[in-house]
Design a protein that fits this description.
By secondary structure, the chain is of the alpha/beta class. The chain is about 55% helix and about 10% strand. The strands form 2 sheets. It has a 6-stranded parallel beta sheet with strand order 1-6-2-5-4-3, sandwiched between helices. α5 links the parallel β3 and β4.
């Protein structure tokens, strides 16, 4: 889609021109250089898939022979060598693709003393496949420097990787590291507007903010927009009613709104949200657990802000999936002090005991919790 090329410009790294952070930059590189080494990674899986397809499409002659894919799980260097060193079949290039190799996982470092200078000859002798991740990294870091000119060597990894990995450093020096992180809130807004326009729909700013409040990836965004547009097929303007009718606003989003209502002392609004969740089939204890989780997030965000931690670090530590969610948590944390949070935890614990011991009906326990939290 043209919007991918137009709007996705994020995570800029000026320190090394071998690092690519936008899909548009990736397309520019491939248009000029149809060979070489590409390591494509990150959390934005939609862009990873699109980038892989761009490289696959370069293999036009006998792709069943000239396009080789290898599973990265327990991969050994012999299969890599055999794949790379056979000549292309009636073509000027071939592609070797290693998918999600184990040696790129973010794990504790293995001992680096084992086989520190593993050569191709040594690896071929080790047919047993008992090489450690360090051995493979050490070998590949040198091997990619000697690859034949007719090879496109592609490694993809559907997650973040250790940028200090020796192989990653070698790729940055001799090929291209393509890193796609999750979109920022502004990027999601821009792309959502373009997606709606491509489908002949408009959406106003308030409805847009409501819609994307708990969306963090292009995959999720596109799926939800397709559902909304199919439902509102005869409508030009997308409304909140269209969004609520078909776009599942998960329990996390509802619990955020519930706690927000409690902070504003809106007991009726909070109880209404609980009743809606129960009507949708959610369990009382799951709702309570999610309320506790929300207060715990507020507590931790407040604590980390007092410790002067950067918002990006807080987001990583607490595994918060979008900038919008973090921003909302910061607002909530600013509206509660630690004494209020402790009281909220105590009231939640009391409600938990009442439900589990059958002292009060689950419905009444949750209603009493909301009333007490609002007082």
């Amino acid at each position: 889609m043209k919007l991918m090329e137009k709007n996705i410009d994020y995570i800029i790294d000026k320190g090394d021109n071998m690092i690519i952070n936008t899909y548009n930059d990736f397309l520019n590189i491939v248009s000029k250089n149809k060979r070489g080494i590409f390591l494509i990674c990150g959390q934005e899986k939609n862009l990873i898939r699109k980038s892989i397809k761009v490289l696959y499409d370069l293999i036009t002659f006998f792709p069943e022979i000239n396009l080789i894919t290898l599973s990265g799980e327990n991969i050994n260097v012999d299969s890599i060598i055999n794949s790379c060193e056979t000549m292309p079949f009636f073509s000027d290039r071939k592609l070797v693709h290693i998918k999600n190799p184990d040696f790129l996982k973010k794990t504790k470092k293995e001992s680096s003393n084992k086989n520190p200078s593993l050569t191709k000859e040594e690896s071929v002798e080790n047919i047993s496949g008992n090489l450690s991740s360090n051995d493979i990294v050490s070998f590949l870091s040198k091997y990619i420097l000697e690859l034949p000119d007719n090879i496109i060597f592609l490694i993809s990894y559907n997650d973040d990787i250790d940028l200090n990995n020796k192989f990653v450093t070698s790729v940055k020096n001799s090929g291209y590291l393509v890193q796609y992180n999750l979109l920022k809130a502004k990027d999601i807004e821009n792309i959502a507007v373009e997606m709606f326009k491509d489908r002949g729909k408009d959406i106003k700013k308030a409805e847009l903010a409501y819609f994307i409040s708990d969306i963090s990836s292009i995959d999720e965004l596109e799926m939800e927009i397709d559902k909304i547009c199919a439902f509102a097929i005869d409508e030009k303007i997308i409304t909140k009613a269209h969004i609520d009718a078909v776009s599942y606003k998960g329990i996390e989003s509802n619990i955020f709104k519930l706690v927000d209502a409690v902070i504003k002392k809106n007991a009726d609004g909070a109880i209404s949200i609980i009743n809606n969740l129960l009507f949708q089939g959610e369990n009382h204890l799951i709702i309570l657990a999610m309320i506790i989780r929300q207060y715990r997030l507020i507590y931790n965000v407040k604590r980390y802000l007092l410790l002067k931690k950067e918002q990006s670090e807080i987001k990583r530590i607490l595994k918060i999936k979008s900038d919008i969610i973090l921003k909302n948590l910061i607002v909530q944390s600013n509206n509660m002090n630690f004494d209020e949070l402790k009281r909220a935890f105590d009231l939640c614990l009391e409600a938990d005991c009442n439900i589990k011991r059958g002292r009060i009906s689950p419905n009444l326990s949750l209603e009493m919790l909301i009333v007490n939290l609002c007082n």
